[in-house]
Specification:
heterodimer, A: alpha/beta, 2 domains, 37 helices, 18 strands, B: alpha/beta, Rossmann fold, four-stranded mixed sheet, 23% helix
Chain lengths: 749, 176
């Protein structure tokens, strides 16, 4: 018996961690190479396209506004749309769920004695499992989008929202077609394969009794559809058969055709990275052009049905925390800019229909089953997608919310209760032992530091790593840094300079974030040295948890409590609202981005105004003072060739421009090469978790490749990364020491 | 203004994989340019213009192998289709073809080569400009239309392939 090979369909519905693990294995073993190549090329093209869009940000604002307004007025728009379609001579139907939608389409097809039917790509039809129902009625259903054509031949679910067969390499398509269609025709190039599919499908188009399409947008004022495509299969599906059925979710309705305008260029740029894809159709069906009698059955009149689907969308629209998922325009920018998605694709990181970070909310909403959002665990919260989304959906925020709800749905285990007690959690929140462990990094690390010699001895005792893996799912292959004997706060409390500064009254505050405090105290100390060398008087705050670690585990209540406590402490400590400088980027992004949802508006605004990246503050401050940074930071003190390879932290890029740091380093005389990856793959606790270790390693490969390419081209580089976890990941992957920018700067003093 | 738009349009058309040429605003020039581009391929299907004067296509219509009322079989086999565009878009290299009422929907879609004729005066800067034009307020005018940006294409079979279910070539003639 051959060993059982996992098929994509078997792991499509990820209702348990076990299935998620199998899906990840499948994706990494068989689909990753094609997915990496294709998503990264989409992503690169997208960056080029949005850079060329002169009013990208304004278009995003407009698109977001239109979606917000349309969704708030959905009931009125639905009514108006129904009237418009009827006025045009079409038929309108509102389906509350998948079953109603299938039944309606089945009945229309029966009434028209439809025997064969062509389909344009429609995720909504995937969502309602339409093909199976129609085939059950004896109808021949032909998917005409080439990617869907591949999937139909392979019987697989889509792995990407706009390129559903993105996991197929050219070679695998050739093998599939040979097996499936038993043909000797040449199939060895993209041209061959396309010609083969085109010639088969052209006959199907012209013989079809009906065509089914989706819609990118629908206008209520005149019943128009916006349809975006490159292959012309949707155009053919709309025009060749006499019967056209369009199927669309209720979130696609906008008031009028005018509202299509901002989406046209925005969608093309965000999706395929083109100014426009080959065909952007604006049609108001039924088309008035006569039906050409390709089937040889005599004259026929056109008929059009618009089916608007609820299937969980109305419930989602009433869900204050998750409703923004409905603004999604299905462009896939979030998938292509997601480091984990880039190595997994939608069979690993996705459900039966929808995939990637945005897909988890959609799967849960359209199936009504929260457990099917399990794959949201693959969202690390790196936030790269949030800045790429053309309608500014906070996708990491959605996934944190889903994680919180999933946690709530599982009873708190005895072991988890014990951990809460042991760690003295202020909020006893539902979560797994692993989540509680990582969420309370500050408490675990404080214990480790207090008992550093013993704790570090224990880390090296055989069996400890086994225990940590069994109890907390911490992968034993991952290096764990020893606990320091002194924290950052301990180190600096004894410094004379600290007292002197305190006497003068500090100009700036430095946040003793927990990650630097326990994980890299020397780095913290160097940060203060740099500031003082630049003439700043500095005070280090107490080290309080900021909530980042808890939030990443979906422990929103703990995160909120910690955010509030930190904010209250700072309100007193920093009543004068002096600059609050942060070394660790994940904490910087926590305050500048996530606190918006966790804190009252006024408290958030205060922190938002005062908090900034420490190195960027230094660079800007010296520039404002007119000081020459080279007089303070002397490049001649740097022994190796001053050449660095810099990986800027993912979350940092969501809140600040890393080019400020890069420009500053260049000003000092460094040659800087920047990584072009979205995330290093460690993403806080993610890369430590046994379930995700392999994903994390796969993500890091591209970063390592880029570093190697830079060294091959120009010689040795000093490695530089701004986050605690990026430093760990890079050190692990390269075996070389990795510096934080402040550590590099301190070497010039 | 129009000159810089035209320059941008030309660059973008080429980026989409289409070709373009400037053609004198005369019926004979249209005929000669279409016949030259179509080479010996016949039949040539023609969709009657609704925005340009029908006169522009008149000499072409009387050529042998040129059809204006094709049958199903002609649609199946015709290698060349000629339509007008009611607008063109500089930034995206697109032409806008009305597919609502006449046979332009088929003629611009089924043949391997689509030749499209557009007046330089109808060149706008961005797709959104079309949604602002006064005539757009009357829905019957452009009840259904398509922005065509290059030939049909796919990346689903591995590398980029031009020529899928729609035309393999798009040739744009601009009246100047």
């Amino acid at each position: 018996m051959p060993k059982h090979v996992t098929l994509p369909r078997e792991v499509a519905a990820k209702e348990s961690r076990a299935i998620l693990r199998r899906a990840i294995r499948l994706a990494l073993d068989t689909e990753s190479a094609a997915v990496r190549h294709n998503t990264r090329s989409f992503n690169l093209n997208r960056y080029r396209a949005i850079a060329a869009l002169p009013d990208y940000d304004a278009l995003k604002d407009e698109a977001r506004r239109i979606k917000e307004h349309a969704l708030a007025n959905r009931t009125a728009l639905l009514q108006r749309l129904s009237e418009s379609v009827t006025r045009n001579g079409g038929h309108f139907f509102f389906a509350r769920d998948a079953q109603e939608a299938r039944q309606y389409i089945q009945e229309v097809c029966k009434r028209h004695s439809v025997r064969s039917l062509v389909k344009g790509k429609s995720m909504t039809s995937e969502e309602i499992h339409l093909n199976g129902a129609l085939e059950h009625d004896g109808i021949r259903v032909v998917e005409t989008d080439l990617a869907e054509f591949i999937l139909q031949a392979a019987d697989e679910q889509p792995s990407h929202i706009i390129a559903p067969a993105i996991h197929y390499s050219r070679e695998r398509i050739t093998a599939l077609f040979r097996r499936k269609f038993q043909t000797d025709l040449p199939l060895d190039t993209g041209e061959d394969l396309t010609r083969f599919a085109r010639e088969r499908l052209r006959q199907d188009f012209l013989a079809a009794d009906a065509g089914i399409t989706g819609a990118n947008l629908v206008s209520a004022d005149c019943g128009s559809l916006l349809l975006v495509e490159s292959e012309a299969n949707i155009r053919l599906t709309c025009i060749a058969p006499p019967l056209h059925i369009a199927l669309s979710g209720l979130e696609k309705i906008v008031p009028s055709r005018r509202e299509f305008a901002p989406f046209i260029e925005l969608l093309a740029a965000s999706a395929t990275g083109q100014p426009l894809t080959s065909y952007t159709s604006v049609i108001q069906p039924p088309l008035t052009v006569p039906v050409v009698d390709f089937r040889g059955v005599g004259p026929a009149t056109r008929e059009f049905h618009l089916l608007i689907l609820d299937n969980g969308r109305e419930t989602l629209a009433r869900d204050a925390q998750l409703k923004e998922a409905l603004y999604c325009i299905r462009c896939s920018a979030c998938l292509n800019s997601c480091a984990n998605f880039q190595v997994l694709g939608g069979h690993g990181f996705g459900g039966e229909t929808y995939s990637g970070g945005i897909g988890a909310t959609w799967e849960a909403a359209t199936t009504g089953q929260l457990k099917l959002a399990r794959f949201s665990d693959l969202c690390t919260g790196c936030s790269r997608c949030a800045t790429q989304c053309p309608v500014r959906i906070d996708i990491p925020g959605l996934n944190v919310e889903l994680r919180w709800r999933l946690n709530k749905s599982i009873p708190l285990s005895l072991m988890a209760r014990a951990m809460h007690l042991l760690l003295g959690s202020s909020v006893v929140e539902h979560a797994s032992t692993q989540q509680i462990f990582f969420a309370h990094y500050d408490r675990v690390a404080r214990l480790g530091t207090l008992f550093a010699p013993v704790a570090n001895f224990l880390l090296n005792v055989p069996g400890t790593r086994w225990f940590l893996e069994r109890s907390f799912g911490i992968d034993r292959r991952r290096h764990l840094a020893p606990f320091p004997r002194k924290t950052w706060v301990n180190l600096c409390a004894n410094e004379a300079t600290q007292k002197e500064d305190a006497a003068q009254g500090p100009q700036v505050l430095v946040l003793a974030d927990v990650f630097t405090n326990y994980g890299a105290p020397e780095r913290g100390k160097n940060a203060l040295r740099c500031l003082r060398a630049a003439g700043e008087s500095v005070r280090l705050t107490k080290s309080l948890p900021d909530g980042r670690a808890a939030l990443s585990q979906g422990m929103i209540e703990t995160a909120r409590a910690q955010a509030e406590a930190l904010s209250e402490y700072l309100a007193v400590e920093n009543a004068a609202e002096r600059p609050l400088l942060v070394v660790e980027p994940s904490v910087l992004a926590m305050i500048l981005r996530e606190y918006r949802k966790l804190l009252p508006a006024e408290a958030f605004r205060k922190l938002q105004n005062s908090t900034m990246d420490l190195v960027q503050f230094l660079a800007r401050h010296l520039a404002e003072q007119g000081s020459d940074p080279c007089a303070i930071f002397d490049i001649r003190k740097f022994a190796p060739r001053p050449r660095v390879f810099y990986h800027a932290h993912c979350q940092q890029r969501a809140v600040s421009d890393p080019s400020i740091t890069v420009d500053f380093l260049r000003r000092l005389g460094f040659e800087v090469t920047c990584s072009q990856v979205e995330c290093c793959g460690m993403a806080g606790s993610f890369g430590y978790k046994k379930d995700f270790y392999d994903v994390s390693q796969a993500v890091s490969e591209e970063l390592v490749e880029q570093w190697k390419a830079a060294e091959n081209a120009m010689g040795p580089h000093t490695l530089l990364a701004s986050g605690v976890s990026c430093v760990e990941q890079l050190q692990g992957a390269t075996g070389r020491a990795v510096l934080h920018p402040v550590e590099l700067l301190a070497k010039l003093l | 203004m129009q000159q810089s738009h035209l320059k941008q349009f030309r660059e973008q058309v080429s980026a989409t994989g289409a070709t373009m040429e400037l053609v004198a605003r005369s019926p004979e020039a249209v005929r000669d340019a279409v016949l030259a581009r179509a080479s010996t391929n016949r039949p040539i299907l023609i969709a009657e213009p609704r925005y340009l004067s029908p006169d522009y296509f008149r000499p072409l219509r009387s050529e042998e192998g040129v059809l204006t009322s094709p049958y199903a079989e002609d649609y199946r086999s015709a290698p060349v289709g000629v339509t007008e565009a009611f607008a063109a878009v500089a930034r995206t290299g697109s032409v806008c073809v009305d597919i609502g009422a006449d046979i332009a929907g088929y003629v611009s879609l089924l043949p391997r080569l689509h030749i499209v004729v557009v007046d330089v005066d109808r060149l706008v800067s961005r797709p959104s400009d079309l949604f602002r034009l006064e005539q757009f307020a009357r829905p019957t005018y452009h009840r259904s239309f398509v922005f065509i940006s290059g030939p049909s294409a796919t990346a689903d079979m591995g590398p980029l392939v031009r020529g899928v279910h729609g035309p393999h070539e798009l040739h744009i003639m601009v009246f100047c």
